[in-house]
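Re: Re: token formats

Sure, here are both.
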Amino acid sequence: MSVPRYNDVKVGDALPALELPAINRTTLALYCGASGDHNPIHVDIDFARKARMPDVFAHGMLSVAYLGRLLTGWVPQTQIRSVAVRFTGITHLGNKPSCFGQVVEKFEADGEQRVKLALRCINQFGDEKLLGEAVVALN
């Protein structure tokens, strides 16, 4: 991984996008096991339909994990200072998540050079699923 340097990063720069395969039932089952979140609305179609949903859908935190992958594909995890997200849409089966980040601010705090990033996760139709921001330290 080539870690970006503070002096080489400009406001407006984009992180390399993270494009993911379509969400399927296997993805959801594996995430249940990995996360310990066994809410039946994500794996049991009968339960989901009783909740007036057409089918099961992805855990919101799965999309947050994808944003985490976006960040750690850009900098080592030890350089991440904060992440905040807001859920804005449901990720249905068949949706292909794509995650994006953009530098929106450069500043210094606690003796470190840092950048603030705007984050978002959308599906293949451009429907927004998550919005957020992160702060990372750069050398």
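Second one below.
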Amino acid sequence: MAMELRKAYRLTKEQDEELKRKVEEVGMTESEFIRLLITQKPKDYPEIRQMLTGLIGEVNRIGVNINEIVHNNNSMLYSDSDKSRLFAYMLKLNEKLNKVVDDIGDH
């Protein structure tokens, strides 16, 4: 990315210390961090990417189990235990999704 503009800003000593602390936490330069704050894309945050990757993996595992239940239903082998398993998988999926949403909301 070609940078075309250079800007200077005034900060108090406390603001500068806070900026340095936050930049060190995320392992970025000050310029990268300021650009990140402007764009505010969740995918730019490593911890959010990691949470989303974990959620996608969990959704895929649950999806495989749901597909098995649907296959049993289509084969007329659907049972009450399948219904209970399906409900449990959907509950687990909702819990995982809610946790990621709550965690992202804290960032």
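Residues 13-40 form one domain. The longest helix spans residues 46-74.
- S.
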